[in-house]
Amino acid sequence: MDMADLSSPENSRWALIGITKCGQRGYLRPCQVVEQRAAESDDTFPLAKICTSPKEMVVVVEDDDDLRDELIEMIREHRYPVVGLRSFVEFKNVAQDYQTGCIILDIRLPGQDGLSIQEWLNSIEFPLPIIFISGVRDVSTVVHAMKAGAVEFLPKPFDEMALRRAINAAIGLSHQRHCRQASQKMVKDLIDTLTPSELVVANMIAQGYPTKVIAGELGRSENTIKIHRHRVFSKLQVNSAASVGNIIHHLAEYGR
Questions:
Q1: Alpha-carbon distance 123 to 167, whole Å?
Q2: pLDDT tens-digit readout, 51-70
Q3: Model pTM?
């Protein structure tokens, strides 16, 4: 093979960039924020294509028909997709339909304990964050809910802007979770395209070994290693040894 043909692939793309501006590791710049955001800004993060979800929903679980309808109308005014349900039993029947968004959950539904619902959702690692609403101001309940991961606990009646901020924060968090999962899957899928020999070379590239040293360690010719190196770059869709290293380290961090 003519070694002049082993230039970086035309479709090379940036790989991992460490911790992204929205505070997570990710592949192909999954989420970014503008350089300077106003302290009061509550915009959700712009997303890369791999992190968008067609199954996004704000789910209102509230047994009070009037309040549920009011919440739905408010949420629609802010152009969020929204659905209203009377009970958590109804929600469980459709929970698998949603990947991103949030749940607005009454802490005291008839015959149902909001904290127990939260515990169950946490046990199955459900991706939609919870915003609790309640007519009761019980400090211990609020503390318990927040420690267990609730985004917000809004006492009734609540301000529309407070609700909007809570929804933005919750949806931003769900995007981060979805981005992370999509990133991990993409990295694993890319690594799985490598042959065993190419994976050995990729790991050595990730450790900073130059082609000559890799050839010596593996008892292969430099031309052979250069071919492997090119195939690694092409299959991982990167154009630098640092990017190969980032992908390998990303996989090691989250496990296979």
A1: 22
A2: 677 788 999 999 999 999 99
A3: 0.71
